[in-house]
Amino acid sequence: MNDDAFWALIDELGRRTGDRDERLEWLREELLGRPAAESVEFQVRLERACERADTRAVWTAANRIEGGDCTDDGFHYFTLWLVGQGSKVYASVLADPDALADVPGVRALVGRHHDSWDDDEWPEWEELDYVAQDAWDELTGQEGDDGEEFLDAVEEAEDAAEAAGEWEEDGESRGPRPEGLAIPRLTALFPPGASGS
């Protein structure tokens, strides 16, 4: 699976109707129809996309949306959600995290306290991180195992991609959590201390 095939699956996932569980089931079925190695490749690309989104600016935007309560795990789940929004949204947010103000799923949260958000509304999607392993386990008969073989296969594929020079280091990493990065539209939608954040 190359990057184009990965994003084609993600873009179709974003277009599908139904709740998150139904959409993940569609993705799992898609992966089950392919060789097991494609589940590994999907996971490698998913992890790489999340790593590219792990920047100070994106964290600041996620934390603003979540009212200052974005944890480390929560931010990882946020990057999974961001990938799940599709290639266009993902690219626009990496270029300018304030573009999250235009995402319908974010706009639907405006003015509401995060305690009132339904599970499917939260801009976090932890379960997306497990769908490839579920498919791989079923395809390889590893169901019920602790996932070590899948994780080893992912690590080997990542090492091979890096050795082949497929991926270069990205410039910015998240590092310390800064305050005050420019996200004016998100700050207008989710003002500090407002009841909706």
TrEMBL record:
Residues 157-197 are annotated as: Disordered. InterPro entries: DUF4240 (IPR025334). Residues 157-171 have a biased composition (Acidic residues). Residues 1-137 form the DUF4240 domain. It comes from the Bacteria. This is DUF4240 domain-containing protein.
